[in-house]
Design a protein that fits this description.
Number of strands of chain A: 2
Largest sheet of chain A: 2 strands, antiparallel
Number of helices of chain B: 15
Distance between the termini of chain A: 29 Å
Strand order of the largest sheet of chain A: 1-2
Structural class of chain A: mainly alpha
Shape of chain A: globular
Order of helices and strands of chain B: HHHHHHHHHHHHHHH
Order of helices and strands of chain A: EHHHHHHHHHHHHHHHE
Distance between the termini of chain B: 68 Å
Largest interface: A-B, 50 and 52 residues
Strand content of chain B: under 5%
Chains: A mainly alpha, B mainly alpha, C alpha/beta
Radius of gyration of chain B: 20 Å
Structural class of chain B: mainly alpha
Shape of chain B: globular
Oligomer: heterotrimer
Helix content of chain A: over 70%
Largest sheet of chain B: none
Number of helices of chain A: 15
């Protein structure tokens, strides 16, 4: 087998590879299911019903897909510039914390709904951006690898959130009521701070689509996007061309973090209406990490992220709903993993030409 | 004396630190060969579940069952690492995304949970587990008793592993070759060293170590299986590798330090000592300190002496134009 | 080697090459860049596998599956970019990968190895401390380590790829002596070069490659540089030197006592002072690694000056800020074309707009004018006859010469006052070199002050009005072209010391 670099990447491969990955993943997971004595077709049918057809299923899928769209966009925004921000998880938590605080405080002070929502959006973005700027600044000023720092900060953010829910003096903790004295839980935001939806479609979903459009425009049509592109491809070329490298790193990390933080705000405003009922609930969803999967499948294209987020969200939703004796738990993670593995493997087909056998090039007569 | 805070925390620090130590030794091997594997948590979880399964299934003496279980855990970890190795070494995929994918695939919501539930492993105690090996009288020696002699075989075996990995990397020819592969694959290649073979071998060895690390939870610490039993230890192990500047001996120090931090918070609470938000800082400290160390390591002066293998995370392709 | 064929995507690098060398000779492999010399030697060392053809070693067929096979067969290559592990010591590098004899031991006996290496380096007069880490060594010393690696393995066939690029003329002579001694010892030395006088000086026989084919093998004694050049290029070279008017315009670039740090944080440029006038080409000669690259980057603003001033057209520019240097009219052709000079995966149009994208013709406030950028790219592609790809194909698909045209087209379109060109012709074929030289002369004729950084003395002597020699970060001396003398420049490049003395 020989692997050669492709000189030109055919466009159809860009669609065929992710689609093929999906098919392959269903096939491979089917083998896993059969090997462990499950009826694969039945499980897939269950997944499909639970994701789309059952009553309320589509709404639940949107609930799962919305945060994934945000974290996927956050990853895409940074990865496009080859800034490997894998801290969307922590940035989402931080956005949720700040947006929740804004909702609690302004809601309690009787601000009108529209203003409270705007304030929550701004606070969520700011919280996520601030958290992302830590690895961003370390990268910009000390050249510290952002992969590990952003990863580490996820855990710090998770512990901060847990602390805010558990600590008796915390502004976020619910202290009134019977349940509150038994289980630590967070305060709910006043109902007029709830984000309105359109039927089953959450406001956050709309914001995610808007964010995707803005990001797409930013990266393809503006000077900022041009600079980010150059910087992502070759930092030396960017510096050579007089681009402000540090500022750009900070700006892109801030954008990435604020999108993730907006996802946190949407969690609070659209769905949970509190920081979290279960102190570790949000952390069990791994929205941040799954967002990277989403972004990778979408090849870091913001518009494709939204579509992929919907599909992965559907899978995620099915996994959550179907837990029980009837359905093999963990199947969804396995499938997500296989989808991603095959997409990563398929990437090779996009970038390289694989030749089987030793082809001897014809030598034309001199 | 042996109930004093320091002794108790250090003794449990060694116990909690052991899985971190195994996992980080494995990650040191992989990273020294230039392969970053962020899938440690996933490999550990699969090792944990398969090791536990083996001990429940094998009907033999305690010693044999446990030996088989450790072997199975190592093989399970290796199998997981093989996926990553194939993707990043042969198919040249992004090491970051592939490692994360491995964690999602194998992790708490993936294969490890699938296998654990499918094999009905939950809610049963292990039929055999690793116990302290020294007689009680020795364990009760003042101070050193609980810390050094109150531990199980896996702890002592990990010390042998630290020594072995350390000597391997610094004093042997294959060790020299691995370091060359991680620093400058093109040089290694030109000198007839197979970059691919070395990267595969060490990524797989890293998986085996991670598998054993996972089994440490189900066969020694808890000893039972629940979904997501490692609770993020795999991520701490990745942090630890940096914290230890990619050196096995420092991994040992770091692992016990991070382990002790984990033990500190419940001990402080049990003794009614309040040092601010204890849980918050004891839990976050390993991560915060890793960030601090990373900043320090990335300063240009320190980089050459202490820093990461120069080609860490980069695929090596020879024939390209 | 018989009938060797090697194909890369879109390139036929070796086309039925025949190549034979005898034991005990120094055999030069001569050819332009892109003639297939490196590919051929990479096949001989097992790094690449040929698509067709056969290799015979002492009359026997051999097939190298990997570099190890070739090493085991006694073939060793010193690559142009050394294959040394920077963080390892000299001794560790020497034994790396050795798996025969004492290399079979599992344990690494550091002491014993260091002693062996010290012995070898004494015996062959290749002075280098076995315990020193590579990154502390000069490029000349690193080359000695590479040769030690070969000697340690008792290599029968030693291949050196452009070994003199990192040496002063005098150091090169010392190397030639070593190589001839090795050949007298019964070894074979294959010497890859495109420099005619070197080939003539060191080789017994010469094989000339052109366009991926072997053209001829001749005895070096019978050949003249002129006849070799004709074989290499395939036509008679125009040997008449281009003469230009000396200009004495006002200074456009003035460096006064400039200091700058290298990548390791140590001082790389130490008090360099230099003036370039309007319409003048000033060359900076020197052995690689003496601070020329850092000097060029400092002028271009990519590297900050720790001390001293840089004036462009009389105005002091802020150090370490490429944007203000660009605004002051500094154009820069960097040594590293693919990676610094262009962003490799971006389109040619984007790369042509790499510096001008902020200006009115390319953007409107924060928005890009994509249509205009494309139009302009088409115009430049035409004017500079950049061949091989359209405006939207990625820059990395271009050949070296066309890539350099992209860089030059962009840099000239910024209407510069000063042009800094760092090794602008490295790795280019003769045709492209002539084009680049013509553009540089044209720029000077238009009144641009050109600062040419080059390690190639021939290039410097054909282009420059004045030559400054850099040694260990300082300007060691300066002469005009009329007074320039290769011997003297060589001595200055070595810091005034003659390595032949001992």
């Amino acid at each position: 087998m020989r692997i050669e670099r492709r000189l030109r990447q055919p466009r159809w491969l860009l669609v065929a590879v992710p689609a093929g990955s999906l098919v392959f993943a269903f096939f491979a997971s089917g083998l896993v299911l059969l090997a462990t004595g499950h009826d694969a077709l039945r499980s897939y049918r269950q997944i499909f019903d639970a994701a789309f057809l059952n009553s309320g299923a589509l709404g639940q899928t949107l609930t799962q897909a919305t945060p994934l769209a945000f974290t996927g966009l956050a990853a895409a925004a940074a990865f496009r510039m080859r800034l490997f921000n894998i801290g969307a998880e922590g940035q989402l938590f931080m956005g949720a914390i700040t947006a929740d605080a804004a909702g609690l405080y302004l809601g309690a002070h009787g601000w009108p709904q529209a203003l409270v929502i705007v304030a929550m959006v701004v606070a969520g973005c700011a919280g996520g951006a601030a958290w992302a700027l830590i690895p961003g600044a370390l990268r910009a000023f000390f050249k510290t690898n952002e992969i590990i720092t952003s990863l580490m900060l996820n855990y710090v953010a998770a512990y901060v959130m847990t602390y805010l829910i558990f600590n008796t003096q915390s502004y976020w903790r619910q202290t009134k009521g019977f349940n509150a004295s038994v289980f630590p839980t967070s305060k709910a935001i006043p109902s007029h701070a709830f984000w309105p939806g359109w039927h089953i479609f959450p406001l956050g979903g709309g914001l995610a689509i808007l964010a995707a459009l803005v990001l797409w425009f930013l990266y393809t049509r503006t000077r900022f996007g041009f600079e980010a592109q150059v910087l992502g491809d070759s930092p030396r070329a960017a510096r050579y061309a007089g681009m402000r490298t540090r500022r750009k790193i900070l700006a892109v990390m801030a954008i990435s973090g604020s999108v993730a933080g907006l996802g946190g705000a949407s969690q609070v405003g659209d769905f949970a209406h509190q920081l979290d009922a279960d102190p570790n609930g949000l952390q069990k969803q791994y929205y941040g990490y799954t967002g990277i999967v989403v972004a990778a499948l979408a090849r870091y294209n913001p518009l494709a992220v939204v579509v992929v987020a919907f599909l992965i969200g559907a899978l995620q939703n099915a996994g959550n709903t179907l837990q029980g004796a009837d359905f093999p738990s963990g199947l969804v993670g396995v499938m997500q993993g296989i989808i991603l593995f095959s997409a990563l493997g398929g990437e090779l087909l996009v970038r390289y030409r694989v030749r089987l056998g030793r082809t001897l090039p014809a030598v034309e007569a001199a | 004396m042996n109930n004093s805070l320091l002794v108790v925390v250090l003794a449990s620090g060694v116990a909690y630190g052991t899985p971190l130590l195994y996992a980080s030794l494995g990650e040191v091997l992989a990273e020294r060969a230039g392969v970053l594997n962020l899938g440690v948590e996933g490999m550990m979880l699969v090792g944990a579940v398969m090791g536990f399964w083996a001990v429940q299934r094998v009907h033999a003496t305690t010693a044999v069952s446990l030996a088989v279980a450790i072997g199975v855990a190592a093989i399970a970890g290796t199998a997981m690492a093989a996926i990553h190795a194939f993707l990043v070494i042969t198919l040249r995929a992004s090491q970051i995304v592939s490692g994360l994918a491995l964690t999602i695939f194998a992790g708490a919501a993936g294969l490890s949970s699938y296998l654990g539930n499918d094999l009905n492993l939950a809610d049963n105690p292990a039929r055999h587990h690793f116990d302290a090996i020294f007689p009680a009288s020795v364990q009760h020696w003042s101070i050193v008793g609980p810390i050094l002699f109150g531990q199980n075989l896996l702890v002592y075996a990990s010390w042998v592993c630290v020594l072995a990995v350390s000597l391997y990397l610094s004093r042997t020819r294959p060790g020299l070759n691995v370091r060359a592969v991680g620093e400058s694959p093109a040089s290694a290649d030109a000198m007839g060293i197979s970059v691919t073979a070395y990267r595969y071998a060490h990524t797989l060895a890293g998986g085996a170590f991670a598998g054993v690390a996972g089994a440490t939870f189900t066969l020694a610490i808890t000893p039972q299986w629940t979904s997501g039993i490692t609770g993020g230890a795999g991520w701490i192990a990745i942090a630890l590798v940096i914290f230890a500047f990619w050196r096995p001996a420092l991994c040992l120090v770091g692992a016990y330090f991070f382990g002790a931090l984990q033990a500190l918070s419940p001990q402080l609470q049990a003794r009614g000592i309040h040092l601010g938000p204890t849980e918050l800082w004891t839990n976050s400290l390993p991560y915060v300190m890793t960030v601090v160390v990373l900043v320090f390591v990335s300063s240009s002066g320190a980089r050459r002496r202490l820093g990461a293998p120069a080609s860490l995370g980069l695929p090596y392709v020879r024939e390209e134009r | 080697m018989r009938g060797i064929v090697k194909r890369f995507p879109a390139v036929l690098a070796n086309d039925r090459v025949d190549f034979a060398v005898a034991a005990g000779e120094v055999h030069a492999l001569l050819g332009e860049n892109g003639a297939g010399k490196s590919t051929l030697s990479n096949i001989l060392t097992g790094l690449y596998r040929p698509d067709a053809g056969e290799i015979l070693l002492n009359g026997e067929h051999v097939q190298f599956q990997s570099p190890r096979d070739a090493l085991d067969a006694g073939i060793f290559m010193v690559h142009q970019h050394f294959r040394l592990v920077e963080t390892f010591t000299v001794a560790e590098n020497v034994v790396l990968g050795d798996h025969r004899g004492e290399g079979r031991t599992f344990r690494l006996r550091t002491r014993a190895i260091e002693q062996r290496v010290a012995e070898l380096s004494n015996r062959f007069g290749l002075a280098v401390d076995p315990r020193a880490p590579i990154w502390q060594l000069s490029l000349g010393e690193q080359q000695r380590v590479e040769i030690l690696k070969a000697l340690y393995r008792e290599t029968r066939i030693l291949i050196l790829d452009e070994p003199t690029a990192v040496l002063t003329p005098q150091e090169a002579e010392v190397l030639f002596t070593t190589l001839r001694e090795m050949a007298a010892d019964g070894r074979t030395v294959i010497f890859i070069s495109h420099k005619l006088h070197e080939v003539k000086a060191v080789a017994d026989r010469v094989t000339v490659l052109r366009g991926g084919r072997s053209i001829a093998t001749v005895a070096a004694a019978d050949a003249t540089p002129r006849s070799l050049a004709a074989l290499m290029v395939g036509r008679e070279l125009d040997a008449a030197p281009v003469t230009r008017e000396r200009t004495t315009g006002e200074p456009v670039l003035e460096l006064t006592n400039v200091w700058a740090e290298g990548d390791r944080g140590d001082a790389a440029v130490k008090g360099a002072s230099l003036i370039v006038r309007r319409g003048e080409i000033v060359a900076v000669a020197g052995v690689a690694g003496n601070g020329q690259r850092e000097l060029a980057e400092t002028v271009a603003g990519i590297r900050g000056a720790t001390r001293g001033t840089i004036r462009i057209g009389g105005k002091t520019i802020r150090g370490g800020d490429p944007r203000s240097a660009i605004a002051a009219g500094v154009a820069y052709v960097p040594e590293d074309r693919l990676g610094t000079g262009v962003a490799p995966s971006l389109s040619i149009a984007s790369n042509l707009a790499l510096k001008g994208y902020r200006e009115r013709h390319a953007s409107h406030g924060p928005l890009l004018r994509l249509g205009r950028i494309r139009e302009r790219a088409l115009e430049l592609i035409n004017r500079y006859s950049i061949a091989g790809a359209g405006p939207s194909s990625p820059a990395r698909l271009l050949s070296g010469g066309n890539l350099q045209k992209v860089v030059l087209a962009r840099e000239f379109s910024g209407k510069p006052r000063v042009l800094v060109a760092a090794s602008p012709t490295r790795g280019l074929d003769v045709g492209a070199i002539e084009t680049v030289h013509a553009y540089l002369r044209e720029a000077a004729a238009d009144g641009v002050g050109v600062l040419l950084i080059s390690e190639d003395l021939d290039e410097i002597l054909t282009l420059a009005d004045r030559v400054a020699v850099m040694y260990e970060g300082a300007i060691a001396g300066e002469t005009t072209r009329e007074d320039a003398d290769v011997e003297e420049i060589g001595l200055l490049m070595a810091g005034g010391q003659d390595p032949r003395a001992d």
